Amino acid sequence: MTRKTLQGLHPDSYQHPFDRKALAALQKMPGLPLLLKKINEYGIDRLLRLQKLGNEFRVNPRNFPKLHNPLVETCQILDEPVPDLYLYRGTGHISTYTIGVEKPLIGVNLETLEWLEAEELLFVFGHEIARIKGKYLTYQQLAVVMPLLKNVISSTTLGFGGLAVNGIEIALYNWIMMAKLTADRAGLLACQDIDIAIASLMKLGGLPSEYLTPEVIEDFTQQAREFQFQELEGLDQVTKIFSFMEYQIPWHVMRASELLKWVETSAYTQLMESDPAQPPPQETEQPENVQDWDFLGNW
Question: Which residues lie closer than 8 Å to 169 by C-beta, 6 or more apart?
Answer without folding.
Answer: 146, 150
